[in-house]
Amino acid sequence: MYTISPLDKSDYQEMIELWEGSVRATHDFLPESRILELKPLILDQYFDAVQLFGIEEEGRILGFLGIHEVDIEMLFTHPEARGKGVGKALLLHAIEELNCTKVDVNEQNKQAVDFYLYMGFKIADAHPSMARENRFLFCI
Asked: pTM score, two decimals?
């Protein structure tokens, strides 16, 4: 059982390092240039736009979640924590405690698509702009 608690600006540096490690381990469809483009945006803008929650163990963040209203905007786990229930615990927290019902996922991110389907999400009709970006909208 993991304890989930709010994260704040003091956690951003560790979170962006976790994000990069997670993306490099799971997002093989993203070119290096896109990762380098996204990293400062996430650190300087995206983290501030969401409520952040994380799981820490022995002073280290194992995974984090960012939500806005009922949307899960980000969910990342440390590569070494994959398969240990961290993502599942964060997702269940988002659904059960924060009343989240939606997440959008790049269709090329097969691991994430499979995870959300396994967790009971269904693919909803995607907005045309999302279709152009190869994104699925999942709803629970």
From this structure: 0.88
